[in-house]
Structures are given as C-alpha cells and as structure tokens.
C-alpha cells in the first residue's frame, strides 16, 4: 500500500528526524510499506541514503530533486521554526540545570533527533527563523524573569520569543561554544564569529556579548554570503544621481565619502561602487572592520587592533602595494584622515565612510578633526549621504490618502496633482507591517570649484548645505519624496528615517 506522506506530518517526523532531513537535503515522498521513496538534492551522497535505510531497516529509493523544491517540502513537513522554538522552550521546563549543562557538552548521533540537546535545537531554530525572515540582527536581552529575543528586519526590531531566565546561561553558552568564545568569562564583553549553513544559505554571524545586570546580552549580526551585495544600479539611486556617481567612481584620484548613521547602507554602497570598477586593470585594496563580504578580485584586509593593525597602520602599508583604488572602512581619527587624504592627492582613488547626519556635515567633521580646509577641498570629490527606507509590500499594496501635515513635511503638496499614494495594508508576507525590503535615499554633494570657495570662507555645516542646495543638490527629504511619489514607500517611512 502506497501512502502519500504530505498529509502525515507527524509520521514524517518520526520516520526522518528534522535535523537529519535539513542537514542532508532529503525529504520523504511516498511510503510504499516495504520501501520508502525520498527526494534528494544532487549534492546528497549515497551514503546518506544508506544510513537512512539502515535506521529504517528497509530499502530507500532516492529521486533527484531541485534544492528549492526540497526546502519547500521541508518547510511543509516540519513546520515553522519559530513555533518549534516555542515548543522546545516548553520542553525545557522539565529539565534541570544539570541536564542542560550535560546537553551542551555531549555529541549526539545526527540521525537521533529525539535525544538531541534541547538547547542546541533552540539556538538552531532561532538562527534558522532569523534567516527565513531575512533578519539582519538577532538581539538576545536578559531581564529579571526572561531573555527576550528580537529580530531586526528591514531596520526595525520585532520581538519574537521569550526564554525563561533559568535557561538563558545555557543559551548564551551554546552561542559562545559556536563562536569560540570563553564560556567562563561573563564579566567582560567578547566578540566572535560563527559560520553556518541554513537551508541553501551560507551565513556569517558576528557575535558580540555584553555583561548586564541580569546576565549577558548577545547581539548577532547575520551576513548572508550567498545573497552578496546589490549592484550600484540596484540600490535605489535616482537616474541622475546614478549617472553622476558612475562617472565619479571611475576617476583616477581623489576621495569619495559615504556618510550616514550605523545601519544606513554605507558598506553596501561602497561594495557596489567597487564591484562596478572591479576590472583586471585596476589594483583595488580595502581595509575594513570587519570584512562583511568577500569580493573576488579585490584584496581585503581586516583590522586587528590586538596586533597593531589599525586603519592608519594598514593604510600606510596599502599605499606601498601600488594600489589604484583604496577603500578605508571608516575614518575615525585625524591620523587615518591625514593618510587617506595624502593618498587621494598622490594618484589614488580613495573611498571611505564617516558618521554624520548629512553630506555638508561631513566637511565640517573633517575640519573639526584637524584637517586644513585646503586639504579637504583639494581631496574630496564628492560626499554621498544616505538612509535606508522600507519599501511597500507588493502583496498587500493599496492606495490611500496621507494627511496634509505629512505631505507638508515632505514638501510635496504642490506636486501631488493626479498622484496616487500607496501603503501596505499588512499581510502574512510582510508580517503585518505593510513593508517588505528596503531601498536607499541619497544626497549627493559635489565639491567643485565654487564649493571650494564657499568652504574656504566657512566651515559651518548649515551654510555649506544652503550653498549646495542653491547649486542644485537634492536633499535626503527630497529624494525620499521622489520615492513616495513613485509609489515605492510611504511619507511616514521617509520621515521616520530622516528624523531618527
């Protein structure tokens, strides 16, 4: 008798443990009684099928399937990883602390999911769900009675889970084991990394722990190595801005700065620019803290202060490597700024970032650091200020009429004749938020001869900004307004990121 397993999820879980199925890209299709038919990825080895056959004590027939089909069936059979995490937390209540400590240290048979350590399963589910939702960060924050787990999705934090406080040390210890941190050290902050595979994605996770009143706080930054970065033409620049930037990044010398707060997409913009000019005839070297994505054809150096490899020291060495293009992850101090500017004046194109609220403020920041005005104007070719705004979910997009106050703040009231405004109603695809994905809004400041004269007279950001706008610079709020008029985002979202 042939049994279709799609309606027998519990039977599937008993037959093939979830961890084994996901790890080996294997999913049951039909149970014919005397033998089992399974779908496998082209990369799944024959030994995996043989192992399963030994465990089930009957023949297993394998059929090759696309990995995307397998992952879809795995999700259908084994359910939502978040609800599984909740179930694991419920199971933890029956275990004592000694059981949990033992679980952290012992190694189980991969096929024997039922006795797999619950803490390990819980941490795995937290990671898997974060990847499924496209989260950029996981925040694990201890309080008196529980540890809160939040995911940052499209720049906003959402609470997804609460772990009883009696289990938080075990969860943190598991993460420390994975990131090769000192489990015994709970009084000092620590930083580490985890490399893992979730579904078809290779994920690099940066781990940071911090002691608090109720235990260690853990923040994990997820970098999806399979997604890589978007091209310069795909990050949301208006056509005129893109055309100008595309010309700027092909210059042979000078400095191009990207500025904005943490999480505003500066690194993505820089990587997109480097990728655009990454050709065999150019020697491109970067120094970063840390390296977020590996780019083929580019030499990337990670900062390591423990051995004296700072931005400044690394930059000195890079200049001796005959580079055409240099990327300095961030200009943090006068020494780094001076070396970067000197490099830009001696035949190198230098990219870097600053933390300022807008483009004009970056000029003021360099001068405040101690850089002479004439050096700033001689070296800086352009400054790009940016923010990331959430885009409207295409699955629940609907027309609506925003308030006059919102339109006034965006300065688009006079241009709304015949324009339809949109928002997301909220659906399962966007978790009820109305937004799915993000795009950039930009402000491009060009340091031409006229601006050089203005900067020579004043270093006040307001005056520089006013002069740049008079010369045609589109401000962040105006670029955001264009995105609203194009139906890509909402007035509320643009104002949220600009006013942060």
How does this model look, in words?
The protein has 500 residues and is α/β, with parallel strands linked by helices. The chain has 19 helices and 19 strands. It has helices spanning 9-15, 18-24, 46-56, 67-78, 81-92, 97-105, 118-133, 168-178, 239-248, 266-277, 311-319, 334-344, 359-369, 373-379, 404-410, 449-457, 461-470, 476-485, 491-499; strands at residues 3-4, 26-31, 36-40, 60-64, 137-142, 146-153, 156-164, 190-198, 201-212, 215-224, 254-259, 284-288, 299-302, 325-328, 349-354, 380-392, 397-400, 421-424, 435-446. Strands 13-12-14-15-11-16-19 form a 7-stranded mixed β-sheet, sandwiched between helices. Helix 7 crosses helix 8 and helix 11 (311-319) runs parallel beside helix 12. The longest helix has 16 residues, at 118-133. The radius of gyration is 27 Å and the shape is globular. 38% of the residues are buried.
Topology readout:
Elements: E1 3-4, H1 9-15, H2 18-24, E2 26-31, E3 36-40, H3 46-56, E4 60-64, H4 67-78, H5 81-92, H6 97-105, H7 118-133, E5 137-142, E6 146-153, E7 156-164, H8 168-178, E8 190-198, E9 201-212, E10 215-224, H9 239-248, E11 254-259, H10 266-277, E12 284-288, E13 299-302, H11 311-319, E14 325-328, H12 334-344, E15 349-354, H13 359-369, H14 373-379, E16 380-392, E17 397-400, H15 404-410, E18 421-424, E19 435-446, H16 449-457, H17 461-470, H18 476-485, H19 491-499
Parallel strand pairs: 3-4, 11-15, 11-16, 12-13, 12-14, 14-15
Antiparallel strand pairs: 1-2, 2-3, 5-6, 5-10, 6-7, 8-9, 9-10, 16-19, 17-18
């Amino acid at each position: 008798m042939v049994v279709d397993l799609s309606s027998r999820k519990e039977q599937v879980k008993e037959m093939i443990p979830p961890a084994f199925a996901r790890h080996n890209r294997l999913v049951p299709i039909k149970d014919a009684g005397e033998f089992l038919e399974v779908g496998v990825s082209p990369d799944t080895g024959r030994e995996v099928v043989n192992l399963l056959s030994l465990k089930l004590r009957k023949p297993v027939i394998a059929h090759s399937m696309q990995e995307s089909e397998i992952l879809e069936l795995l999700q259908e059979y084994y359910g939502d990883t978040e609800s599984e995490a909740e179930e694991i937390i419920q199971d933890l209540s029956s275990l004592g602390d000694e059981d949990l400590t033992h679980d952290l240290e012992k190694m189980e048979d991969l096929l024997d999911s039922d006795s797999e350590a619950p803490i390990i399963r819980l941490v795995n589910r937290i990671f898997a769900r974060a990847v499924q939702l496209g989260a950029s960060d996981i925040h694990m924050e201890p309080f008196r009675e529980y540890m809160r787990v939040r995911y940052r999705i499209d720049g906003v934090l959402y609470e997804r889970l609460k772990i009883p406080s009696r289990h938080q040390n075990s969860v943190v210890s598991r993460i420390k084991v994975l990131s090769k941190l000192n489990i015994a050290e709970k009084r000092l902050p620590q930083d580490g990394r985890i490399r893992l595979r979730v579904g078809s994605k290779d994920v690099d996770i940066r781990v940071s722990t911090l002691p608090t009143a109720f235990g260690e706080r853990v923040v994990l930054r997820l970098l999806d190595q399979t997604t890589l970065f978007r091209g310069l033409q795909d990050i949301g620049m208006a056509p005129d801005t893109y055309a100008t930037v595309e010309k700027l990044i092909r210059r042979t010398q000078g400095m191009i700065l990207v500025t904005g707060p943490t999480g505003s997409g500066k690194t993505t913009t820089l990587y997109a620019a480097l990728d655009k000019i990454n050709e065999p005839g150019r020697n491109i070297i970067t120094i970063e803290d840390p390296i977020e994505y590996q780019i083929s054809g580019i030499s990337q150096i990670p900062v390591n202060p423990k051995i004296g490899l700072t931005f400044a020291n690394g930059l000195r060495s890079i200049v001796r490597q005959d580079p055409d293009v240099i990327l300095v992850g961030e200009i943090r101090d006068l020494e780094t700024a001076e070396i970067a500017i000197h490099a830009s004046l001696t035949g190198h194109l230098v990219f870097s970032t600053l933390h300022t609220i807008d483009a004009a403020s970056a000029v003021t920041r360099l001068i405040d650091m101690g850089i002479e005005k004439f050096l700033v104007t001689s070296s800086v070719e352009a400054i790009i200020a940016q923010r990331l705004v959430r885009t409207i979910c295409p699955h629940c997009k609907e027309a609506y009429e925003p308030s006059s106050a919102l339109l006034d703040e965006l300065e688009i009231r006079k241009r709304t004749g015949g324009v339809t405004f949109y928002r997301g109603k909220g659906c399962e695809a966007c978790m009820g938020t109305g937004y799915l994905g993000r795009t950039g809004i930009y402000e491009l400041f060009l340091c031409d001869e006229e601006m050089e004269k203005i900067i020579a007279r004043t270093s006040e950001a307001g005056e520089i900004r006013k002069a740049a706008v008079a010369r045609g610079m589109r401000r962040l709020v105006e670029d955001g307004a264009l995105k609203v008029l194009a139906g890509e985002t909402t007035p509320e979202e643009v104002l949220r990121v600009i006013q942060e």
